[in-house]
Amino acid sequence: MKAKKKMATIALALVLALAAAGVAKANWEIEGKSIVNGFSESVTMAAEGTYDIAYVWSGHEYTLTATGMSCSSCLINQSGTAEIFDGTFSFTGVTFDKPGGCSIPGGTITTKPLKGELIMDPEGGAATFIKFTPTVGETFMEFPVSGETCLAGGLKFIVKGSLAGRFSETGASAAAQPIAFSAAEEATAGASLKVGEPMTITGKSLIKLSGANAGKSWEGK
Question: How far apart are CA 112 and CA 211, in angstroms?
Fold first, then answer.
């Protein structure tokens, strides 16, 4: 009897430790069926509204607005026991709100290739999260800034770290799944971006299956 209680206590402690560490596994499901190891499906990603990017550099606040956001070479897959989202993000139509005189050549900021892992809400909620990290190295993205009157004109900002977004709620299967990014979502999933000082990316996108299962309902749970 004591042995059973001891095992139960150890099991509970392990579950609580995993939850606290934010490593609880979640699964991709398409029309109620979990995908299997080796499965891969392409997806599309498009912004709903604008994206805001904010950071501090050399004591000055920098705020940018992107009118679009997309993902190239993007797919969901299962690798071993991990549910993965691979792809490269692009923020388009990027302009500086402040400081004045700054601009992004071409108006586009593109990340390095990213690998996102699907996890359950580390705080114990019903939501799933996708935490994105660079496939290679620590650099998440980098972008040059131009402008003769810009405080950072001629410099290239190098952003390191990870980005996390709140994905679907468990049981909320839909053809278009939202993913929301904000400082709160990053903190919950243990992600952070830095340009020396912290950077925050705020916005929302919709993700749809675009391969053999295009148009079908899916979710993370």
Answer: 23
